[in-house]
Amino acid sequence: MAKKNPQTALMHSDYTAPAGFDAFPVAIHHASTVLFKNVAAMRAREWQEKNSYTYGLHGTPTSFTLEARLAEIEGGQHCLLAPSGLAAITMVDLALLKSGDDVLLPDNVYNPNRELGNWLSKDFGITARYYDPMAGAGIAGLIQPNTRLVWTEAPGSVSMEVPDLPAICAAAHAKGVLVAIDNTWSAGLALRAFDLGVDIVMQALTKYQSGGSDVLMGAVVTRDPALNQKLQLAHMRLGFGVGMDDAYLVLRSLPTMKLRFDAHDAGARTVAAWLQQQAQISRVLHPAFADCPGHENWKRDFTGAGGLFSVLFDARYSEEQTDCFVDSLKLFKIGYSWGGANSLCVPYRIQGMRKNWQDQGTLVRFNIGLEDPQDLIADIEQAFNLM
Ligand SMILES: *Cc1c(COP(=O)(O)O)cnc(C)c1O
């Protein structure tokens, strides 16, 4: 089918409904066992193929439809689903790394990805090293003969630095190293990662794709068939099935994803612009704002921003005071994750998470939901007054 506008692509796929039952929703197909007409038909089926079915763990028409839609959103060719975003990260590492190999991760990486890297280093004979997320072309100096993979995250989902992806990709490819991106922040809507040179796109569908704060799922998208085959093998060996009811929930949310994403984006920019004017806040770490490291990269490479950003409180406030601020919020709830309708707020002990963090003051991350931004601002204002 011809290339569609992203909003249209979110709503139209090549899914065919059963004869005589045309309707918009994709059917939920549950199965462990898939039946074959005879032994010859069983032997002829290949589990890797997406145009036939072998066993529920490898997918049903419901999950294949979701995979096809996600690949299209990212501008990729192949997609594999995993039971969580973190499982999708694990699948990439285990597909591409073996004992003796080296992987580079940005120092601002999603913390469980760092945990995985440390575990691979400690128990699996793989080295995981951490680089300055703003390294750009300088990453070339860190690549060793045994380096196989460079992870990127754009931006880092707590401290919000936006990396120079084309420079990182060029440096890695010059030495035959693959680049993976955790593209969750942009939902695949605001960043065309493959067009910048990235080889593997990972998404936590738990966030905007679900949109309901009720599903855990991940995806890995690629363009290259050989790379997809390696990932498929890891996917099969790890037994990463997803529930078809969950796959359906994500399919149900996709048509509204861009509208929700744009609303989160507009709300977040309104709240962030207000926060920037407040004496309690020393810095707003939002990629669309000039104070954010890598803002120029965001301007060049992104078409939007979504609802997630962080602030640094002025260093004169103790952690006790900023905790009191978070506890005093009424519309913002305290909790991890984002991409759902409700606004969330989490303070991070960033100084302990990073090797070379320079800034003073508590870092607080906001997920701007779909409430009216002026109500959210009023909520923050009343909590400031109780600090
Ligand atoms: C949430 C998240 C993940 C992991 O997703 P889960 O489904 O919670 O495992 C990975 N990366 C980023 C940036 C995330 O925000």
Question: If you had to describe this structure to a student in words, what would you say it looks like?
Answer:
By secondary structure, the protein is of the alpha/beta class. The chain has 2 domains: 39-251, Type I PLP-dependent aspartate aminotransferase-like (Major domain) (Aspartate Aminotransferase, domain 2); 256-384, Aspartate Aminotransferase, domain 1 (Alpha-Beta Complex), CATH 3.90.1150.10. The protein is 35% helix and 16% strand. The chain has helices spanning 6-9, 39-44, 61-74, 85-96, 111-123, 165-174, 225-238, 244-253, 257-276, 295-301, 319-328, 350-353, 373-384, and strands at 78-82, 102-106, 127-131, 147-153, 178-182, 200-204, 218-222, 281-285, 308-313, 333-334, 344-348, 363-367. A 7-stranded mixed sheet has the order 1-7-6-5-4-2-3, sandwiched between helices. The longest helix has 20 residues, at 257-276. The protein binds pyridoxal-5'-phosphate.
Keywords:
Aspartate Aminotransferase, domain 2, binds pyridoxal-5'-phosphate, 7-stranded mixed beta sheet, Aspartate Aminotransferase, domain 1, 35% helix, alpha/beta, 5-stranded mixed beta sheet, 13 helices
Order of helices and strands: HHHEHEHEEHEEEHHHEHEHEEHEH
- The name of the CATH topology of the largest domain is Aspartate Aminotransferase, domain 2
Which geometry do the CA atoms define?
globular
Q: Give the number of helices.
A: 13
Please tell me the total number of domains: 2
Q: What's the CATH class label of the largest domain?
A: Alpha Beta
Strand segment tally: 12
Strand order of the largest sheet: 1-7-6-5-4-2-3
Approximately how much beta-strand content do the residues carry?
15-25%
Average pLDDT confidence is 95
> What ranges have pLDDT less than 50 throughout 5 or more consecutive residues?
none
CATH architecture annotation of the largest domain: 3-Layer(aba) Sandwich
What ligand molecules are bound, each kind once?
Answer: pyridoxal-5'-phosphate
Over the alpha carbons, how many angstroms does the gyration radius reach? 22 Å
Structural class: alpha/beta
